[in-house]
Design a protein that fits this description.
Blueprint (H helix, E strand, L loop, with lengths): L26 E3 L6 E4 L7 E8 L16 E9 L2 E8 L3 H9 L15 H5 L14 E5 L2 E5 L5 E4 L5 E5 L10 E2 L4 E2 L6 E6 L6 E6 L5 E7 L11 E3 L2 E6 L2 E3 L1 H5 L5 E3 L5 E7 L6 E5 L7 E7 L2 E8 L19 E8 L5 E5 L4 E6 L11 E7 L13 E6 L5 E5 L5 E2 L3 E3 L11 E8 L3 E8 L9 E5 L9 E5 L4
Antiparallel strand pairs: 1-5, 2-33, 3-4, 3-34, 4-5, 6-7, 7-8, 8-9, 10-12, 11-12, 12-13, 13-14, 15-16, 16-19, 17-18, 19-20, 21-22, 22-23, 23-24, 25-26, 26-27, 27-28, 29-31, 30-31, 31-32, 32-33
The chain binds fe (ii) ion.
The site of fe (ii) ion has 8 residues, from loops.
Length: 477
């Protein structure tokens, strides 16, 4: 176990309470001083529930949420009715140099600078931004990958030790920033992903076959490099949002605001045929979105389910607190023949991190899940999520489960029941931190949230708030 020097987080709202990092790496088994299981863990579960998130390792000189913080993966492994836990930093090239020198060597997205000579001499990447590998953790083509917004994937072993950068056998070239949000097609097992560059062409759609071999590379003509965080498979198409939100690296390096929001402009929507055909563009009054929930195609229509926001929830100022803004589950319909766009709010509940049964990714489905809040007021910079919501996407009916006031519930992941193809026979897992109970994994019935957790796996250390989680079927220690 590594013990690190204390970090003064008092200046940074997004490093307070359960946003604060954990500065140790733990390994726990069940039993005295380790994991405690309450309730019944479904026997059919064999695999690992992993979540990535930002977790600074050294004193930062600036901190912007959600763009900074070294990636740390938390994992609970399920096998033979027993559970095990680990948390490990992703040991990126930048992280390794900082560990060697015992200090931060790279700046924040809100305070960008080139690394100093000592950092470069120690082998630090000569880049103004450090690949944080902090956003997502995905298992595809027999590789476990920690992913960042715009950088190479980092391959991990199942025990969370870092193997190194993975460039898909050279398919990803220097300067191609791989997205943190690939989608794995429920029909073909293909991984649909993209790269974004600072120089044109800004956006390239990529498709990897089941084994991780690239089978499509399709640059899309775009006027500028917008903040395009996620993508969604919808049948034979891939849909992306092109909001009037841009980044300016030069401004960021000279003390200016690296974020640009042209809120008077429309948001454009791009539907790209998966066979490499030419994209079809749509337009809608301005909105912003981090995440899709799912999407599918029915004839000439694409159905796109996502979490809507009026404006981007980030800024240069660490006190900006813009995460408090409204966000709701929406369904957008794109008519490929007529160009018509319709959009409908499914409900008023504040929610984020929309998910569905991944076996139906890109295909018609019924249930969408999201971290959610029914709190009417909140303290701190972020609204927080004290519960989870399930929407019946066909009619907007919803179920909400409240973990309790002051709880931070993470992205809810649908874990299929291996013995059933039905969405509602699956389980819903999330990392949760409760103000009195501490951190635990919640395992619920995807078919009935109202039953509450079927089991909780309590973790004796804290699991800070983070980003994306996934179930790794069959992956164990
Ligand atoms: Fe994300």
């Amino acid at each position: 176990m590594t013990t690190r020097p204390e970090i003064d987080v008092s200046k940074y709202p997004y490093l307070q309470n359960n946003y604060a990092p954990v500065l140790e790496e733990y390994s726990f088994d069940e039993g005295e001083g380790g994991l405690r299981v309450e309730g019944e863990i479904p026997e059919a579960l064999v695999g690992a529930f992993m979540r990535n998130g930002p977790n600074i390792a050294w004193q930062p000189n600036h901190y912007v949420y959600p763009a900074d913080g070294d990636g740390m993966v938390h994992a609970v492994y399920f096998k033979d009715g027993r559970v095990h836990y680990r948390n490990r930093w992703v040991r990126t090239e930048g992280f390794k140099v900082e560990e060697k020198l015992g200090r931060s060597c790279y700046g924040s997205v809100g305070k960008i600078y080139m690394p100093d000579e000592e950092t470069l001499a120690a082998g630090g990447p000569p880049s103004p931004l450090k690949n944080l590998a902090n956003t997502n953790i995905v298992y595809h083509g027999d590789k476990l990958m920690a992913l960042w917004e715009v950088g190479n994937a980092y391959e991990l072993n199942s025990d969370l030790s870092t193997v190194g950068e993975w460039d898909y056998d050279g398919a990803i070239k220097p300067g191609d920033g791989l997205t943190a949000h690939p989608k794995i097609c429920g029909r073909t097992g293909q991984l649909v992903t993209c790269t974004q560059r600072w120089d044109a062409p800004f956006y390239t759609l990529r498709i990897m076959d089941k084994s991780g071999k690239q089978i499509l590379e399709k640059p899309i003509d775009m006027p500028d490099r917008a903040v395009m965080h996620d993508l969604q498979i919808c049948g034979d198409y891939v849909v992306i949002f092109y909001p009037p939100a841009f980044t300016n690296l030069e401004a960021g390096m000279t003390g200016g605001d690296p974020f640009i929001w042209n809120g008077d402009d429309n948001t454009r929507i791009c539907a790209i045929p998966r066979d490499g055909g030419e994209p079809i563009w749509f337009e809608k009054s301005t909105f912003f979105s981090w995440h899709f929930t799912n999407g599918f195609q029915s004839g000439d229509k694409l159905y796109v389910d996502y979490v809507w926001m009026a404006t981007p929830p980030f800024g240069l100022d660490p006190n900006s607190g813009r995460e408090s803004q409204l966000r709701n589950m929406h369904r957008m319909t794109l008519n490929l023949k007529t160009g018509e766009v319709t959009d409908e709010k499914l409900g008023p509940t504040y929610c984020e991190f929309g998910r569905a049964d991944d076996r139906l990714c890109g295909l018609q489905y019924q249930y969408g899940f999201a971290a959610a809040s029914d709190a009417e007021s909140f303290e701190g910079p972020n609204h927080g999520y004290n519960g989870v919501i399930r929407y019946n996407m066909d009619n907007g009916d919803s179920q909400f489960w409240d973990y309790g006031e002051g709880t931070s519930a993470g992205e809810p992941v649908h874990v299929p029941n291996p013995n059933s193809e039905k969405e509602e026979d699956g389980f819903l897992m999330a990392y949760v931190t409760h103000p009195e109970e501490g951190s635990f994994i919640s395992i619920m019935s995807a078919g009935d949230l109202q039953r509450g957790p079927l089991a909780k796996v309590f973790i004796p250390s804290r699991v800070p708030n983070g980003f994306h989680a996934n179930w790794m079927q069959g992956l164990t220690l």
